[in-house]
Specification:
This protein has about 210 residues and is mainly alpha-helical. The chain has eight helices and no strands.
Length: about 210
């Protein structure tokens, strides 16, 4: 990735648009009963539970910290990408703090009856869905641009994207969230990812990305 002021500006605009869209979804759904999308997505509940539990585990902090340490170590070994890795990890931490505040603001209760997991926090937006975008899509972008052999970079990118898809799905399969919670999390995550990419363009030299 190279410094590009036009792209950076567009990323910041997209970041704000995504974040405001997430808040708009929350305002629409937080204090109402399940809508059509939420009801339709209930058909996913109970599907492929072992796989859903695996994907949900990927979104937990112990796993994320482990992946982050490995990613930073690889970046240091390659002598490229450590700065960008640090930005994505920072964005993950900040996005989860922001997500917790948004949950407190909207006070939406969980659907109830989760499968295999016990969730004690609020429902909107889905923190796992935020993580799917900020962490897994973020690292997928970095993997694609990493100085690795193309087949390796492509395989790693595909694996990370599969995680980014599987994690939000797992929240519906386990009945841990409404579909609109997942949608809100994806939008909020997209906002933070755009901000992270803009930060990389601005502050991380191209030779160090």
């Amino acid at each position: 990735m190279r410094t590009d002021s036009v792209l950076e500006t567009r990323l910041w605009i997209a970041a704000v648009a995504f974040a405001l869209s997430a808040l708009a979804v929350g305002a629409l759904v937080a204090h109402r009963g399940p809508g059509r999308l939420d009801i339709a997505a209930q058909s996913l509940r109970g599907t492929a539970v072992p796989l859903a539990l695996f994907f949900t585990l990927l979104g937990r902090w112990p796993v994320l910290i482990g992946i982050g340490v490995v990613a930073f170590g690889v970046a240091m070994a390659l002598r490229a990408g450590a700065g960008a890795v640090a930005v994505v990890l920072g964005a993950q931490v900040i996005s989860q703090a922001a997500n917790a505040l948004v949950k407190l603001g909207f006070q939406r209760a969980r659907p109830g009856g989760e499968i295999g997991v016990r969730e004690t926090d609020l429902s909107f937006p889905s923190g796992h869905s935020v993580t799917a975008i900020v962490f897994f899509v973020g690292f997928a972008i970095l993997a694609w641009h990493a100085p690795l052999p193309r087949p390796w970079a492509a395989a790693l990118t595909a694996l990370l994207v599969a995680c980014a898809v599987g994690i939000p799905w797992s929240r519906l399969a386990l009945g841990a969230h409404y579909a609109t919670d997942v949608a809100g999390g994806l939008l909020l995550g997209a906002g933070f990812l755009c901000a992270a990419l803009a930060t990389v363009l601005r502050f991380v030299p191209a030779t160090a990305q």
